[in-house]
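Predict structure. Input: Permease of the major facilitator superfamily, 391 residues.
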Amino acid sequence: MGIRKRDFVLFLLASAAIGISQSVDTSFFNNFLNDSYHLTITQRTFLEIPREFPGFAVVFVTGLLFAFGDIRTAAVANVLAGLGSLGLAFWSPEYLPMIGWLTVYSMGQHLFMPMSNSIGMNLAADGHMGRRLGQINSVNTAVFLATSLATAFLFRFIKIDYHFAFTISAAAFFLSAVLILMMTPHSGKRIGKRFVLRQEYKVFYGLNILYGARKQIFITFGPWVLIKIFNQGVATFAILSFFIAGLGIVFKPFIGHLIDSVGERFVLAGEAVSLIFVCLGYAFTRGIFDNLGLGSITLYAICALFVLDQMLAAVSMARATYLKKIALSEEDVSPTLSMGITLDHMVSMFVPWLGGLIWTVLGYEYVFVAGAAIATLNLLLTTRMKTVNPL
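Output follows.
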C-alpha cells in the first residue's frame, strides 16, 4: 500500500471516530444544557460566546502551532476535544466550571476544522478535491448514522446518563488523535507564513463571515425551537441525527461531485437559495399550519427543515475547495482556512446574543426572518466569486 493510500485510510478511520463524537454532541448537547443547568434563553445564548471564542482564536492558535504541521496539529486538536469531553462529563457540577470545559472542548473542535479540510485536499488527486472531501465526509456520516441510532435506543430504552455519553465521545476523540499521529507528516515544519490576510481572498472571507452568522442561528436557535416550543427530548434529536446521517451518506459525495463538475459558485448559490426557504419555513410554518387546521403536523415540518439545514452544512467544503483553487500559493491554504474560521466566529460569537434579544422581544419567528436576510446576502456574494477551473 502506497504512503498516500495508507494515509487516506488512516484519515478515513480518524474521521469515522470523530463521527461518533459528532453524533453524541448533536443528539444530546442542547438537552444536556437544558436538563443539567435549566438555562433560560438569555443564558443559553450567552453560552455561545465562550463556545465560539475558540473559533475566533483558531488562527492565532494555529500560528502558535506553526511548526507542528497540519497532521500533528489535527492530533492535538482531538486530544483537546477529548479532554473537554471528560471535563463536561465529570468536572462540571455547576454552570461556571462547565463553561471552562466547554471552551477546551470547543477549542479542539474548531482547531480541527481547517486541518481536516487541508489534510483531505492534500490527499486528493488533481481535479478531485471535492470528491475526496465527499468520500471522507461520507464515511464520517456513516458512523454518525450508526451512533445516532444507538444513542436513540440507549436514551429511550436503557436510560443512560450524560456522563456515559460524554465518556464515549472522549474515547472517540482520543482514538482519532492516535490514528492521525500514525499518518506521515507532510513535513517537519509547515512552510510559509503563520498568518495570511490578502485582498485577493476577500470574497472567501465574506463567505465565511456570512456563514458564521447564518450557522449560529441554526446551531443555537434551531434545536432550541424544538426543545422550548415543541418540548422535544434527546430521543427526538437522536432520531433526527439518524435521518441526517442516512441521507448524508449519499448527499455529501453528491455535493463533492457537484463541486468538481459544475463548480463552487453554483453549489454555494444553491445552498443560499435553500437556506432562504428553510429560514422562512422556521418562521412561518407554525402560524400558517395552525390557520389551516394542520397544527398536528407542524412539528414534522419543523423537523424536516431541521434535517435539511443540517444536510446543507456539507456545502462548507465548497468554500475550502474554492480557496484551494484561487490561492496564490499552496502555503496560503492552511493559514487562510484558519483565518476564514476566525472571521466566521468573530461574527458567530455575538449573533446568539442578538438573536436571543430578538427572540425575547419579538418572538422566535423573527430570528429566522433575520436568517433569511443573511442567506439573501450570501446569495448576492456568490455572484462575486471567480469562475475557476478544476485543479
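The radius of gyration is 20 Å.
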